[in-house]
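User: My collaborator sent over this chain with a note saying "see what the structure looks like." That's all I know about it. Can you take a look?
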Amino acid sequence: MKFFALFFAAGLLGAASSIEKGHIVGGYICPAHSVPWQVRLGRCGGSLINEWWVISAAHCYAPAETLVARLGKHNLSRYEVTEQNLKVAKVIRHSNYNYKTSENDIMLVKLAQKARINKYVRLIRLPTHCPAPGKKCLVSGWGKTHPYQDIYSNVLKCLQEFIFPNKPCTRYFPYRNDSISFNSKSMLCASSNRIGHSSCSGDSGGPLVCNGLLEGIVSWGYRECGVKDYPSVYTKVCKYISWIRRIISSY
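Assistant: Without extra context I'll predict from the sequence alone. Here is the result:
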């Protein structure tokens, strides 16, 4: 499963074609409705964090009037009795989001009507602490399924990954203040440790869930999704809890 849906970003180690924003390659088809917090939001993913709010990646931004949040979905190619298709009232990107560096790649989406919580549509909890390296997690999305072809999945796919320590991520994606690179203050890395398996294009904004907590938001990674030893990069949700609460309370 590869994780980036919409954009190509500036180069990794000086190579402009090396970074891609959010998909899943490899992995497996999720058991239907086993990820009930998963949201389809335009061409990206998202997570339902309360009855009115979806969280996603800032690089997935689109005007509210153009978006529909699709909840309770498994197969995008057909109508499902479990689905809820809700209009969007507001889209709020982090005010310090930087598209060049992917800093603060986080966005909140307020629904125009309350989601109905049931067996197929549920909330995902936010973390209270940042995750430790080695923690086992699940990433999910409808993104690309092949690293070299624009083939996307109609059914929700899942992949198990493990949280990476910061030092290897910094080595793979050396920090630069003028282009996309890893910053441990606002990002985390995760990997399946298996070649041909990673999040990729089309999975952007989707959830990385560890022990029932939303620890990451699919953000960016090496363009050839699934390349051995290259982890995927996620927005570190634990660093934005106060921002999330402030935005929700403001609206």
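A starting point for your reply to your collaborator: The two ends are 35 Å apart (CA to CA).
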